[in-house]
Design brief:
Elements (H helix, E strand, L loop, with lengths): L2 H4 L2 H13 L6 H10 L10 H24 L4 E5 L6 H4 L6 E6 L1 H7 L9 E5 L5 H5 L6 E6 L8 H14 L2 E9 L1 H7 L19 H4 L6 E5 L5 H4 L4 H10 L2 H4 L3 E9 L1
Helix pairs in contact: 2-3, 2-4
């Protein structure tokens, strides 16, 4: 695996550790895979606070996906840049068609732990390649999960991704986390992904800039650290966590956007 692909072990570790504690996120698949793979973690990647943050981010994406499936029963779910994530197992709502997409070398590892069935499939997809995005299954409505993806794409690549998705689907619901430009610059020197060799990251200050020339609109922002999840921590941990990931400070670095297209 290259350096970018190796970053998948950081959220996997976080989810596995938090799941063992029985808080925030129940993820037995992450526990199983982490125990089997035992990828060597170093530095900031092993931070307890980062594990909480990774688990909360995943839970926010899970809850949003469930909400989208309740509203769009026939939607195609596209989890692009899925890594080893088990969202397809964690969501509570039924789905008719779910695609987990990532690079071939990632899927080669993923297939050791996940099995395809009538409603669930894995597909080799490079999100920066518009031709590959164009080869995704057709449908009317797509629920698109872009967790931990945008920061490895230039603004132009993100825009072309959206333009291609817009051509394929009549209705789009997208949840995407992004670094700000300041966050991307700062991350070159102090970020857990540096521990696996990643140094080049990209930020988005104005989400409207990557929606240019599309009909996709920004519906709003979501919190990475909702009070209901932070309150699952021990009292003293809550104090430290809120100090480290205060909403006002965190937004200067990292944001979570919900996007929507209805043609």
């Amino acid at each position: 695996m290259n350096e970018v692909n190796k970053t998948l072990f950081i959220p996997l570790y976080g989810k596995s550790q938090v799941s063992k504690k029985g808080i925030i996120l129940k993820d037995p698949a992450a526990e199983k895979i982490w125990n089997a793979e035992a990828f060597p973690m170093h530095g900031k990647s092993k931070s307890k606070w980062l594990t909480y943050n990774m688990a909360m981010r995943a839970r926010v994406f899970d809850d949003w996906t469930d909400a989208m499936l309740r509203e769009n029963r026939d939607a195609l779910v596209l989890h692009l840049g899925c890594g080893l994530d088990s969202r397809c197992l964690r969501v509570k709502e039924p789905y008719g068609s779910w695609i987990d997409g990532d690079f071939p070398e990632v899927l080669s590892l993923r297939r050791k732990y996940y099995k395809e069935n009538a409603s669930y499939h894995m597909m080799a997809v490079d999100v920066s390649d518009t031709e590959q995005i164009g080869n995704l299954p057709d449908g009317e409505t797509a629920v698109v999960i872009l967790e931990g993806v945008s920061m490895y794409l230039t603004n132009g690549q993100v825009r072309r991704l959206f333009q291609t998705l817009e051509k394929k689907y009549s209705r789009l619901h997208i949840l995407m986390d992004v670094y700000t430009e300041f966050g991307a610059k700062a991350s070159r020197y102090k970020n857990p992904v540096n521990d696996v060799g990643v140094t080049e990251l990209y930020g988005i200050d104005d989400v409207q800039s990557v929606l240019k020339d599309t009909k996709i609109k920004c519906k709003g922002e979501h919190s990475f650290t909702p009070d209901a999840l932070v309150n699952e921590l021990k009292p003293l941990e809550r104090v430290f966590f809120r100090a480290m990931f205060s909403e006002k400070l965190y937004r200067k670095i990292y944001r979570l956007y919900e996007l929507k297209l209805v043609s």
